[in-house]
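Thread: quick sanity check before group meeting

JM: Hey all, I'm pulling together slides for Thursday and realized we never actually wrote out the predicted structure for the chain we discussed last week. Dropping the sequence here so it's in one place. If anyone has concerns about the input, flag it before I start.
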Amino acid sequence: MPSSFKAVQIAENCWWVGAIAWDLRDFHGYLTDRGSTFNAYLILDEKVTLIDTVKREFSEELLARIASVIEPAKIDYIVSLHS
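JM (edit): ok, ran it. Output follows.
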């Protein structure tokens, strides 16, 4: 996985591990001229929780960001806020 993808710590034990889609121009009917983000968060507590994921084409980016903080296999829970 590319090592250039690093998680961004946004609070103690909380990391942004999502992806940026710079070329995205239509996000669910909303026109964008600067792309959009797929926000996913990694919470490190008694149990490790991943909140949301990304589109399939950004999965390696997501896994690389998670791996910059913790081994992905150590995730206990995945919470999906979108269907």
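AS: nice. The two ends are 27 Å apart (CA to CA). The helical segments are 59-67.
JM: adding both to the slides.
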